[in-house]
Amino acid sequence: MINFEGGPLTMWTNILRYVMNNQKTDQLVDAILVQHPDNPYLMAYKEEVLQDYNLGPDIKKIAWNDDVDVRTQEKITGMASTLLPIRFLALGLTAAKSVARVTIPGEGFIEVGSGFLTEHNLFITNNHVLSDPAVAAKATIEFNYEESVSGLPVLPTPFRLDPSAYFKTSGPDDFTAVKIAGDANAKFGSLSLKRTQVKSGDFVNIIQHPGGRFKQIGLYHNVVTFANDDIVQYLTDTEPGSSGSPVFNSNWEVVALHHTGGMLLEPGLKRKMLRNEGISINRIIEGIS
């Protein structure tokens, strides 16, 4: 009753059409779970079937001294908890102070990027944003380029760079570290650089200036899809202009320097997937030490 001709996509389309038309989806999932018992997508489907995700029971009909039905209890709905202490927000705002917009004047246009301030007034961004001392000398770094709580623009604080004092860059690792002219640390703090470990399934947040616009943060579907000693790949949203942004873990530790996105190869695989990518902060630390 099922046509198995054609390629895998056609075959599975025919299988799924049959099981859905005959209300056999549960049986198909059960059969696949025998060989793949830990598959998160299959488990999520079964969870959805077993649980009734409505708005909850009518509390007027629940006697205060009765046992609570297990189906009405709260629970973690994914593979890992996304609950965070409320201080996470305050710590994020503190970290955001050290993130700045980069502008570089060109002939009839302005190039934009992002970057962040670390100790000793050292500014970190990508090599493809600030490729050499001459480009860095033309750039302007703007802190507080953002909106207030009321939605009005905040007056930004500009700084120039001093590549003659310190400038280090790497094309392969796509980073540049350059000294800021002046004491930006005094007002905008710094992000610490220390070796960290990140793995697939972790969550990462990016504070950035996408498209050169006011400071923004990526906070949804921020799952790490791959990580090794050199790179971190993730689903966190970015745009052109986000290059050079710090990639944070849930403790607001910098784990990577964002540098690219699109259809990227995962090391060890032969197919490309839509992801964003950063250089591991461990590589940056090795490069500037």
Automatic annotation (TrEMBL):
It is an enzyme of class 3 (hydrolase). Coiled coil: none annotated. Keywords: Hydrolase, Protease, Serine protease, Signal. The keyword GTP-binding does not apply. Pfam families: Trypsin_2. It comes from the Bacteria. Its EC number is 3.4.21.-. InterPro entries: Peptidase_S1_PA, Peptidase_S1_PA_chymotrypsin, Peptidase_S1B, Peptidase_S1B_tx. Belongs to the peptidase S1B family. This is Serine protease.
